Amino acid sequence: xxxxxxxxxxxxxxxxxxxxxxxxxxxxxxxxxxxxxxxxxxxxxxxxxxxxxxxxxxxxxxxxxxxxxxxxxxxxxxxxxxxxxxxxxxxxxxxxxxxxxxxxxxxxxxxxxxxxxxxxxxxxxxxxxxxxxxxxxxxxxxxxxxxxxxxxxxxxxxxxxxxxxxxxxxxxxxxxxxxxxxxxxxxxxxxxxxxxxxxxxxxxxxxxxxxxxxxxxxxxxxxxxxxxxxxxxxxxxxxxxxxxxxxxxxxxxxxxxxxxxxxxxxxxxxxxxxxxxxxxxxxxxxxxxxxxxxxxxxxxxxxxxxxxxxxxxxxxxxxxxxxxxxxxxxxxxxxxxxxxxxxxxxxxxxxxxxx
Length: 355
Description:
Blueprint: E1 2-14, E2 25-40, E3 46-49, E4 58-62, E5 68-69, H1 75-80, H2 82-93, E6 105-110, H3 127-142, H4 147-150, H5 152-166, H6 174-181, E7 184-188, E8 197-201, E9 208-213, H7 220-233, H8 235-257, H9 261-282, H10 289-301, E10 304-307, E11 315-320, H11 323-335, E12 339-341, E13 351-354
Parallel strand pairs: 3-6
Antiparallel strand pairs: 1-2, 1-13, 2-6, 2-7, 3-4, 4-5, 7-8, 9-11, 9-12, 10-11
């Protein structure tokens, strides 16, 4: 049997950092997919091929206590294959993985679309979350189950747990939700112990945008760790800033519900300013020099700009209700040496096929 699965990456449009404090966030699944291919194997060891992640096949066996024995693979290899270990761990907790009868498989993990062409530089589109969702979906199908059989909320929580363990228990999980469900969605965590509230949305037809690559990737995990440290030491300042950011994000999501492009752009601009204030208060380089340079170019062309995600690098977005303005942004940023990408909404989320 062969199972093929894939899941899209994501871009966060509103709600960065505020989502960690229960505020609403807005994310868009994008048409860059992680792909997984599983097939039954007669070998005694499980095999992982992951071009671009590891340079040769890795092998492991599942021990009686559920841990993975990587057959003397190096620590570096094992670290790069954390999605495999964490997804299998989640399946064990769901009682899906029976260590005595689990069929041995040969897996191929592919994420080339999440890298800058011709390099090993990540584009910051949520590759690890997309890989966790694709791998989890493939493994579930591999043993003849489906998210409906487990309960969709339960399946989401399992994938969120796997990804959070990979990220050192940092992050909101919005990237996992976008990869699992696809489309544009609002996301809020009422408390840390409850399933997130997720609602499907649509971008207005009158909204025009282009995503702008700063030229270098940033470690979301490092930003979130340092943010957590600052928030703990400056609780009052953090609470006020995050409350303000939550309100801006809430207004932007309300504008999206109303198909009000002008108000959505206003909210995006205000959120970008709030991220700048957060960076200044916390000492984090959220609104980095590259984002400042992009903002100046975008504003000169007549559009609004905000960084996407934790900041520092990766992507920003230019938004306008005028397609000609976005064309000007694309041309001006290209001349300045940046890379504009017209990423599209991926409506389909995770999918699997059995061959």
